[in-house]
């Protein structure tokens, strides 16, 4: 049978170019305004970065950025395409090559080791070099690599981690852990022989490797508590019980260790927002046993948004006169794509963009370098000759000329959305394809959609942001950020510029002294 064209076209938002867009003056004026702004960038910001912020959209490939931009506009009842994300306003953009040392298409762990530790690594490993082999405990020792978070802490800066995933998930764990398997969340997920050989689980390393990380917020509560201990929020649900075989209560240990240090542990939004950041020096916030819920499904009473967590983090961290380093992960963009749930993924991206904007209001480009990037892309895309203003989750404006059925603009190359009905592709017009958890159709059936292998964007603003340009290896990112902040191995230029400044400041006094000597002689 064939599907009539009328219902397909009815899904298109009737938004076309406005009258002003029909006038060439509109486009010429916009372009000239952009040109004048670009000319101001010729005067480079070469200040030393007091603060560093890295926003990491997990799985936020360029198609996701574009689709999120359109969604952001459409949420404000605009056409969407002309909308600007906060990251779109960053003056410098580069591309990052995401491959791992043993993988053409990256996984988050190896990628995180690159953009946090400055060293490319094998997939599935965090905070270790490519000499370490996944799941082989005895390849850990001697192959550890340190992260920019540690470099910042050792330089006297405050440091923080904020994520919508578990705090011991792949991306955040590369900031503090050295582990040959990203899945060793607690000792309950480790092989007994690895534990006996002395390898540490990631949750334990969070509290032991880098003393006193100032701010830690995200999920992952169950990995901190003894096995079978009930969860404070879901006491009757066994899947949320503690997982630690060693019976340690890492939260209690943290509380005891930080007793006299203005430290606070919170597990819900009310507790978080009731804090006065001026009287908090250390914060541990674990808001879920596992990952935080998708933003579309978030309980506004109990779970903080990414923006709310970022605001509290910056308020605490910026009290340090030496500045701070903050890692922020919009981690569930990735999960939405893996599930084929594009609506969840894109709303996660829009929320991360909101957090980027809020952080921008709380900091200054004169002393804060902010970088936005992704660890890898996904097999996600959208197309189909959709007209201007087409709802991003809607149908393409025509039927397939092969099976005469409609299709959504958003499609996946592989994933769980593949479905055959009576030997034919499923008719999407019979489904609610704009529902939050709709799984977009995919070309190849997989229980979980995979990462994509193309380069990802790097957006940068603030001191030395111009150093992120062109196409770079992913491990270049922390080296640039460290250079901008004069931390880690990049401090020689800071000493030179500091010495030059001191010399120029002393020259007037020296000249006056020589003049006086001449007069006396």
From TrEMBL:
The keyword DNA damage appears for this protein: no
Subcellular compartments: Cell membrane
Keyword Nuclease: no
Record keywords, A-Z: Cell membrane, Glycoprotein, GPI-anchor, Hydrolase, Lipoprotein, Magnesium, Membrane, Metal-binding, Zinc
EC number(s) per entry: 3.1.3.1
Binding site for Zn(2+): 58, 334, 338, 375-376, 451
Assembly behavior: Homodimer.
Identification of the protein by name: Alkaline phosphatase
Provenance organism: Salmo trutta (Brown trout)
């Amino acid at each position: 049978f064939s599907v009539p064209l009328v219902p397909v076209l009815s899904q298109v938002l009737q938004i076309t170019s406005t009258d002003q867009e029909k006038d060439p003056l509109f486009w010429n004026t916009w372009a000239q305004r952009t040109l004048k702004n670009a000319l101001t960038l010729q005067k480079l910001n070469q200040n030393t970065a007091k603060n560093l912020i890295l926003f990491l959209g997990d799985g936020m490939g360029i198609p996701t950025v574009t689709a999120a931009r359109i969604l952001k506009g459409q949420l404000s009842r605009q056409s969407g395409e002309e909308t600007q994300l906060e990251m779109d306003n960053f003056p410098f953009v580069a591309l990052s090559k995401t491959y791992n040392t043993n993988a053409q298409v990256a996984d988050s762990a190896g990628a995180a080791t690159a953009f946090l530790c400055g060293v490319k690594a094998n997939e599935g490993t965090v905070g270790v070099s490519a000499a370490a082999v996944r799941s082989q405990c005895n390849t850990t020792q001697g192959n550890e690599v340190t992260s920019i978070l540690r470099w910042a802490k050792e330089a006297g800066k405050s440091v923080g981690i904020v994520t919508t995933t578990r705090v011991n998930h792949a991306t955040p764990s590369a900031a503090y852990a050295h582990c040959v398997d990203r899945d060793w969340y607690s000792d309950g997920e480790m092989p007994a022989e690895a534990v006996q050989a002395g390898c540490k689980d990631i949750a334990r390393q969070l509290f032991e490797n880098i003393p006193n990380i100032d701010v830690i917020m995200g999920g992952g509560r169950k990995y901190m508590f003894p096995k079978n201990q009930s969860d404070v929020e879901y006491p009757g649900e066994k899947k949320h019980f503690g997982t630690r075989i060693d019976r340690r209560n890492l939260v209690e240990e943290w509380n005891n260790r930080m007793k006299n240090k203005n430290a606070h542990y919170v597990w819900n939004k009310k507790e978080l927002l009731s804090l006065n950041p001026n009287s908090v020096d250390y914060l541990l916030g674990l808001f879920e046993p596992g990952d935080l819920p998708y933003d579309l499904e978030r309980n506004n009473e109990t779970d903080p948004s990414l923006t709310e967590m970022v605001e509290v983090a910056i308020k605490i961290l910026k009290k340090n006169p030496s500045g701070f380093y903050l890692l922020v992960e919009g981690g569930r963009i990735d999960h939405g794509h893996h599930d084929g749930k594009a609506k969840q993924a894109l709303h996660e991206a829009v929320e991360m963009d909101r957090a980027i904007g809020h952080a921008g209001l709380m900091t200054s480009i004169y002393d804060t370098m902010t970088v936005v990037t992704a660890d890898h892309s996904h097999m996600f895309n959208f197309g189909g000759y959709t007209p201007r203003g087409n709802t991003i989750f809607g149908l393409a404006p025509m039927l397939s000329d092969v099976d005469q059925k409609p299709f959504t603009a958003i499609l996946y190359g592989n994933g769980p959305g593949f479905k055959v009905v009576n030997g034919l592709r499923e008719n999407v017009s019979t489904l609610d394809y704009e529902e939050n958890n709709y799984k977009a159709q995919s070309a190849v059936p997989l229980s979980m959609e995979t990462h994509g292998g193309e380069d990802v964007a790097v957006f940068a603003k603030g001191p030395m942001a111009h150093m992120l340009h062109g196409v770079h290896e992913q491990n270049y990112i922390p080296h640039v950020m460290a250079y901008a902040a004069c931390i880690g191995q990049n401090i020689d230029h800071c000493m030179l510029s500091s010495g030059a400044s001191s010399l120029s400041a002393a020259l007037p006094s020296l000249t006056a002294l020589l003049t006086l000597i001449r007069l006396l002689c």
